[in-house]
């Protein structure tokens, strides 16, 4: 990609309304644009990052048998009345069309139990139809009262939600463990460490676990056992000691990046999601549900990986791998060579922009490898990792070795 053609360019000023690091940096670097509280446009660079995160999540969901689909954002309100959540889900957006007869008929989905359970109830007949693991990466709507933390808390945000359906709780528990492992793999691949904490799962489950990324800007508080490193959620901590071993607990701020629930049978009962077993007896399906905040993860990555100059993307989710800073009109040759090698490369080809301004933009954008090409450097390339201070001079072959 040529930077001269990229929409949009970086901003000098901090945009108004940016109260968090991720919002400020992502907006200044041209990854996102805020439309109103908790609602963002993902600009070309930002969309690339979301896509990379989504692809890692997809890969790990497919590896545990997940089948991807896409459910609607607009839901029939009647389904929400059935579960009682039309009244109890505080953050629900209720929408209506212009006609008098449209009133009270639709809501925007904040989660998808009210769609997937009745959907499956139409298809699941026998134990032979189970187990089933279905997921989507889709926009959710929640009228969050505190939508001030950039991508960490959107009113419209991107979530991966997986739902699993089983003939027994034992089978569901086995799958639950696989999802937990997949989540650890996902956060490792993205590059943000996440600890697992036990959460109070609300009315529908006896056990649920949160994945928390420790960072001072997090809205959640977790407690880490100083001896065993076990993490606990605020709700279950009585004293200042570890409930397992009695050691001191360290209080940390964290971002909840994922959440896994065994749901048991509550929604299945409401929507009569049942099957006939081997003996011909009718039984209620046992289910689990597993969320992961795709857009929140993007914000969390920036909260964890930045410095005073800008973002420092981990390689796996960076929009491009190499940022060529072309000086004195140089750089096109190396740009074309990298493209031919299928390296994801952004080339700052702007004429009449100072070297200092180009370096500042490269630091703000946070692409993992910066390569400077100038009349002086010519056949040697000056390479610098965004996360490191030293620059090195390398040949094209050496550069390819590093970035591929
Ligand atoms: P929180 O306690 O932070 O509001 P939650 O418990 O409501 O989260 P879930 O309903 O379990 O979240 O949603 C699954 C995942 O979706 C969360 O773990 C989080 O990563 C993400 N998520 C939830 N709410 C938002 C939001 N408003 N903006 C961005 N991501 C969100
Ligand atoms: Mg919430």
Description:
The protein has 404 residues and is α+β, with helices and mostly antiparallel strands. The chain has 2 domains: 7-73 and 109-307, BirA Bifunctional Protein, domain 2, CATH 3.30.930; 320-403, Rossmann fold, CATH 3.40.50. Helix content is 29%, strand content 29%. The protein contains 11 helices and 23 strands. It has helices at 21-28, 44-63, 77-83, 85-88, 113-123, 169-190, 266-270, 294-304, 332-340, 355-365, 396-403; strands at 32-36, 39-42, 67-68, 74-76, 93-95, 106-108, 132-141, 156-166, 195-199, 208-214, 220-225, 231-233, 249-264, 274-276, 282-284, 286-293, 306-307, 310-311, 322-326, 345-348, 369-373, 381-385, 391-394. The strands form 6 sheets. The chain has a 5-stranded mixed beta barrel with strand order 9-10-13-11-12. A 5-stranded mixed β-sheet has the order 20-19-21-22-23, with helices on both faces. The longest helix has 22 residues, at 169-190. It is globular. Residues 111, 142, 144, 153-154, 157, 159, 256-259, 291-293, 295-296 line the site of adenosine-5'-triphosphate.
């Amino acid at each position: 990609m040529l930077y001269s053609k990229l929409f949009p360019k970086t901003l000098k000023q901090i945009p108004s309304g940016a109260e968090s690091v991720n919002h400020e940096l992502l907006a200044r670097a041209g990854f996102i644009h805020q439309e109103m509280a908790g609602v963002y446009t993902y600009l070309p660079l930002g969309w690339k990052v979301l896509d990379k995160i989504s692809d890692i999540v997809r890969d790990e969901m497919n590896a545990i048998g997940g089948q991807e689909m896409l459910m609607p954002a607009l839901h029939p309100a009647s389904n929400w009345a059935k579960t009682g959540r039309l009244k109890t889900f505080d953050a629900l957006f209720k929408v209506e069309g212009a006609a008098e007869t449209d009133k009270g008929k639709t809501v925007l989905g904040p989660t998808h139990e009210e769609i997937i359970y009745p959907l499956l109830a139409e298809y699941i007949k026998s134990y032979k139809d189970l187990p089933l693991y279905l997921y989507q990466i889709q926009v959710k709507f929640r009228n969050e009262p505190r939508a001030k933390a950039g991508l960490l808390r959107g009113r419209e945000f991107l979530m991966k939600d997986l739902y699993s359906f089983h003939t027994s709780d034992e089978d569901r528990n086995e799958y639950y463990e696989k999802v937990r492992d997949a989540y650890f793999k996902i956060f490792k691949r993205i590059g943000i460490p996440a600890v697992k904490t036990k959460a109070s799962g609300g009315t529908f489950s006896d056990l649920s676990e949160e994945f928390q990324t420790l960072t001072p800007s997090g809205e959640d508080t977790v407690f880490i056992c100083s001896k065993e490193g076990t993490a606990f959620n605020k709700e279950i901590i009585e004293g200042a000691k570890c409930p397992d071993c009695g050691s001191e607990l360290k209080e940390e701020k964290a971002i909840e990046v994922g959440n896994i629930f065994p749901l048991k049978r509550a929604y299945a009962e409401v929507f009569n999601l049942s099957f006939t077993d081997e003996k011909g007896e009718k039984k209620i399906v046992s289910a689990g549900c597993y969320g992961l905040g795709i857009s929140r993860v993007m914000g969390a990555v920036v909260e964890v990986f930045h410095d005073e100059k800008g973002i420092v993307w981990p390689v796996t989710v960076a929009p491009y791998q190499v940022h060529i800073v072309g000086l004195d009109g140089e750089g096109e040759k190396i740009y074309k060579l990298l493209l031919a090698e299928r390296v994801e490369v952004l080339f700052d080809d702007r004429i009449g922009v100072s070297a200092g301004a180009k370096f500042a933009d490269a630091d703000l954008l946070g692409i993992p490898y910066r390569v400077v090409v100038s009349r002086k450097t010519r056949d040697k390339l000056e390479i610098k990792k965004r996360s490191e201070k030293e620059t090195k001079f390398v040949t094209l072959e050496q550069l390819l070795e590093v970035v591929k």
